[in-house]
């Protein structure tokens, strides 16, 4: 299966390799530690992600002026347990189920104008739009402010070393002010949205501090928007090369979830999960010292031949599909995974009920510049209406 994953300069070396030290690696928004151990084998990745006591998520120094340092994803237990419990309440299956009809309506609205033209730029016209609409509605962002928040998220999800630390910092600050104002409004006048639930939810008598609510909003937008956008685009890139699979899924919609799971194993949206060693330890043959940065590579773990036979091939009937690590593993398993699965399922149900898709160009899609995900800048498709 052809994918753009080879754009990673170290990927050939990383594939199924023992841990090695990469002097050029710098994690997202943290340049205080030069280099990191790259952990790539499935067994080692699972071991690191399972042992939060040895491999801490708090690799970014916490500061009062940067809400990202209070993010759920860079927080260890016991606070992590409290934050996740509150957020999980807000992401209840009932809330997600109530949104299914609305999500389907959005998918139809995004797709139908392009059917008559017979083409779509899938990233800009669909994959960017759907998750942003979903998260904005879920959080309760006013319609007039949705585009402003989208631009902030695009900046924050980019690589600060490429877009500029100043732009990154300003976007983060403006977004923090925006959510702070929205939290004040919801505190005074609660509504049926996620922000109101985050403000009022309690676990063991505790509520979130305002800065933690802001950090949660930013994290939900980053995860729910950027990761889902990438999942949609990456899965569509895979499906566009498999016309027989499209035809099968159109007639057997119950197989769409496992097809998406396999597509995201073949082309994983998440680049990796940085950790910092809390003590001296070993990962396979690598002697890792306390304070060393460790980056676990989901994309290479998902291609480990020891776990996934013929790993570059798309096979949605694999017996071990549930072992794919595309949404992470352990206590930091993606909080929004159930919502992402619903969005992507409904999206492909909608698309394949109306059309078959194929790549509009033989040119390899260009990867998006992001410190967080593997994604595509654009994906021009031909829509063959059925």
Automatic annotation (TrEMBL):
PROSITE patterns: CYTOCHROME_P450 (PS00086)
Pfam family, any one: p450
Keyword line: Heme, Iron, Metal-binding, Monooxygenase, Oxidoreductase
Gene Ontology molecular functions: heme binding; iron ion binding; monooxygenase activity; oxidoreductase activity, acting on paired donors, with incorporation or reduction of molecular oxygen
Similarity comment: Belongs to the cytochrome P450 family.
PANTHER family linked to this entry: CYTOCHROME P450 YJIB-RELATED, P450, PUTATIVE (EUROFUNG)-RELATED
Listed name of the protein: Cytochrome P450
The organism of origin for this protein: Chitinophaga varians
Organism taxonomic ancestry: Bacteria, Pseudomonadati, Bacteroidota, Chitinophagia, Chitinophagales
């Amino acid at each position: 299966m052809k994918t753009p994953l080879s754009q990673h300069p170290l990927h050939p070396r990383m594939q199924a390799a023992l841990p090695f030290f990469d002097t050029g690696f710098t994690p997202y928004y943290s340049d205080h530690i030069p280099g990191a151990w790259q952990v790539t084998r499935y067994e080692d990745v699972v071991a690191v992600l399972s042992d939060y006591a040895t491999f801490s998520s708090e690799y970014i120094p916490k500061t009062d002026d940067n809400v990202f340092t209070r993010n759920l994803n860079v927080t260890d237990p016991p606070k992590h347990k409290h934050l996740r419990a509150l957020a999980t309440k807000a992401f209840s299956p009932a809330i997600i189920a109530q949104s299914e009809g609305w999500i389907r309506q959005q998918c139809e609205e995004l797709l139908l104008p392009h059917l008559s033209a017979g083409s779509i730029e899938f990233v800009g016209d669909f994959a960017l739009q759907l998750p942003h609409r979903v998260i904005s509605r879920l959080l309760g962002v006013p319609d007039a402010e949705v585009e402003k928040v989208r631009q902030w998220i695009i900046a924050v999800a980019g690589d600060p070393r490429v877009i500029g630390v100043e732009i990154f910092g300003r976007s983060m600050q403006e977004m923090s002010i925006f959510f702070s104002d929205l939290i004040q409004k919801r505190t005074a006048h609660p509504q049926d949205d996620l922000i109101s639930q985050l403000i009022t939810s309690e676990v063991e008598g505790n509520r979130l501090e305002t800065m933690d609510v802001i950090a949660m909003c930013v994290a939900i937008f980053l995860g729910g928007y950027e990761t889902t956008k990438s999942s949609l685009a990456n899965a569509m890139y895979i499906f566009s090369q498999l016309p027989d699979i499209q035809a099968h899924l159109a007639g057997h919609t119950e197989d769409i979830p496992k097809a998406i799971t396999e597509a995201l194993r073949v082309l994983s949206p998440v680049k990796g999960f940085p950790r910092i060693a809390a003590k001296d330890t070993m990962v396979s043959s690598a002697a890792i010292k306390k304070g060393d940065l460790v980056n676990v590579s989901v994309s290479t773990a998902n291609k480990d031949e020891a776990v996934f036979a013929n790993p570059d091939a798309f096979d949605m009937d694999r017996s071990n599909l549930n072992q794919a690590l595309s949404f992470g593993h352990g206590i930091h398993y993606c909080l929004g995974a159930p919502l992402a699965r619903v969005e992507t399922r409904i999206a492909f149900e909608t698309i394949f009920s109306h059309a078959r898709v194929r790549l509009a160009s033989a040119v390899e899609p260009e990867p998006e510049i992001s410190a967080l995900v593997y994604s595509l800048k654009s994906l021009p498709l031909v829509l063959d209406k059925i």
